[in-house]
Amino acid sequence: MKYNRHSKILEIIEKKDIETQEELAEELRKEGINVTQATVSRDIKELRLVKVLAPSGIYKYAVIDKNNMDISPKLIRVFAESVLSIDYANNLIVIKTLAGSAQAAASAIDALNWKEIVGCIAGDDTIMVVVRENESVREVIDRFNQLIRG
Q1: Which residues contact 39 (CB under 8 A, 6 or more apart)?
Q2: Do the beta carbons of residue 129 and residue 89 sit within 8 Å?
Q3: 27, 41, 46, 149: least surrounded by Cβ within 10 Å?
């Protein structure tokens, strides 16, 4: 049942711009799958869906790039638990981390292989991330925040 539901979720978000968990639950109900918002929330976490900016200007659910599926959950946890703040200027993102954690967190960023990121440099408690285009910075920060929230 769960695998069928996961498959249907992936099919729905590929065809439609789904903005909220409630909207996704409603689409599943239309397909004959009765779910609660809590179940949809768990499914989103298990499928590692993220919100991305759609061409229409709304944020919608999407699958993390296939290259990202290889990243260790432990590495994501290290990133999520070490980040203190995220700020930016133009195409540069500056991430402040707990002392001594920047290099491990930067390793997680590198492992993500996001096409928008040129690379990153880490010190002891600061990471500088270079984003290809200024227009992509907010989306990259939003995706970082989603990783932090889990």
Answers
A1: 5, 25
A2: no
A3: 149
Residue located via tokens 């920060």: 141
Tokens at 114, concatenated: 């996001």
Task: Write out pLDDT tens, residues 16-74.
Answer: 999 999 999 999 999 999 999 999 999 988 887 877 777 787 888 887 654 444 556 77
**Cα 39 to Cα 35: distance, rounded to the nearest angstrom:** 6
Q: pTM for this structure?
A: 0.56
Q: Which domains does the chain have, with CATH numbers?
A: 2-63 (1.10.10.10), 67-149 (3.30.1360.40)
106 with 121: CB under 8 angstroms?
yes
List, in order, residues 6 or more apart from 111 with CB less than 8 Å away.
70, 71, 72, 75
Q: Is the dihedral of CA 92, 95, 99, 101 positive or negative?
A: negative
Nearest partner of 30 among 56, 12, 15, 48, judged by Cα: 12
3 state SS of 80: helix
Q: If you average pLDDT over residues 109-117, what whole number do you get?
A: 89
